[in-house]
Amino acid sequence: MKVNPGVTIGPVGRKILAVAEKYPKANELYVTSGFRNEPGSHHNGLFWNGSPTAALDFGAYDDPEPNSKDQADMRDFAKWLLDNFRGDLAELIHTTPYPDDNGFYLQNGVWHNFDQATMAAHLNHVHVAMSDASADRILAKLGAAGPQAPAGTPVAAAGVEVGPAPTATAAAAGAEVWGWDASNHDWGRGPMDLKAARAAGISFFTHKVSEGSDWLDSHYKEAMERARAARIPVVGAYHVLYPGDAKSQARFFFDTVAAQTPWHDTVPMIWQCDAEKFDNMVRAPNRQEIIDFLDEMRRLANGKGYFIAYAPRWLYGDSLKPFPYDLWASDYTGSGAPRPFKEQYKGVPAASWQAYSGRKPTILQFASDAVTGTQPTTDANRFAGSLADLINLTGSHDASRPAPPMPVAAPARGVTPSEDGLAAALRGLSELRSSGALTAEEFTLAKEKILH
Question: How far is CA 305 from the centre of its chain?
Fold first, then answer.
């Protein structure tokens, strides 16, 4: 992870950094501040439950699209910390410009009412404080050892990436990641040979389970058993969401998966919400229904798995913004005539990956007539990252995960360290609006959250 020039990080801070580097989207973040002479602050070092503390501040890289996705990236990181490690956070402070959360304000593991100036000053970064003991507990939960750097390894050197040099294993882990999503329709088209699909390069496979509140796909269990036997690294299940009671549909879906594939929580698993509109629907599911469905799935699955919405750009455009989950898009532009999926992808333009609803898709379905191994006429997908990245998104541990590619550093923005008080903090908020980092609506929502 990039550490901005001039930032100093001590032993406890290095443990906080090690925790952040286990975040599945760590490549979207960078460190803006560490130790500083600020008496009374965790940045200067305090004690919590008898253990010394430190604090780091994290920013997120700006994206080329004008929807300030970096704000969503920071919120996702804060939410990951809150959902998984609440009781071990000495402080978590981050204000968002979104109407569907209350910001992130923890002190000593519990919710805390910070003053308005503090809230305003934490729009452009996520402040994280831990003690030496609590950082160790979090690292243990993540299955990671503390940062014991070998001799000669740069740790938190200003402006450089932390960690050992990339290895041959890491380079191999960066290979393209291909997927196939199937349903009952596929079973009449070919042999459904998942071993042949794996040999052709398929690394993730999902299959339809259910629709609405009562329809079941009769082939789900057999498909998953074949995928497991073929040693496909990541498997998954999907549900076609109908408008209406999303939470009851989530329970129907989860109960079916648990009954037919009780081993689902022992493998890297994708939980996919299919939110397209079918002819028998009066309308497509709306934003809140999709979020309610995925929220309920997270609860039922105890957070284990990768929760994602197939909510394509051609149907939803920017109507989902702000959206707290990753998007699975579809765009068949450039895939051409039916042929092996890797050949089809060569014609896919970069524009197929363009952001919408404030998010860049993490999975792209680029064809519906691909040849996958011995199976004709399949959907074909590509994941925007390495296989290790995808496995980590499912909550499973992959010891061979390489350091992510380093984006170009973006400067920290907003309130300067010499400014204090609510007026200065609001001035920083106005600068974010003037720079185009926040839309008018996001600026208003953030300001109201701080002032009221």
Answer: 11
Q: Name the residue among 282, 332, 329, 359 with its Cα closest to residue 65.
A: 359
Smallest CA-to-CA distance from 101 within 74, 127, 128, 125 is with 74
- Dihedral pair phi/psi, residue 64, rounded to 5°: -65, -25
Summarised one tens digit per residue, pLDDT across range 363-375 is: 999 999 999 999 9
Q: How high is the pLDDT of residue 406?
A: 29
Q: For 304, how many CA atoms within 13 A lie in the half-sphere containing its CB?
A: 15
- β-pair partners for 58: 31, 126
In whole angstroms, what is the distance from residue 300 CA to residue 41 CA? 38
Residue position matching structure tokens 């959907």 = 379
Between CA 67 and CA 50 the distance in angstroms is: 43
pLDDT band at 123 (very low <50, low <70, confident <90, very high): confident
Number of residues that make up the chain = 452
Token digits of residue 196: 């042949």
* Residues 153-201: tens digit of each pLDDT: 233 332 222 222 222 232 233 478 999 999 999 999 999 999 999 999 9
Q: Measured between alpha carbons, how far is 255 from 250 in angstroms, rounded to an integer?
A: 8
Reported pTM: 0.56
Residues 6+ apart with CB under 8 A from 79: 101, 104, 324
**Hunting for tokens 């929807």 — which residue is that?**
67
Task: Concatenate the DSSP letters of all residues of 150-192 into one string.
Answer: PTT---S-TTSB-SPPP-HHHHHTTS-EEEEEE-GGGGGTS--
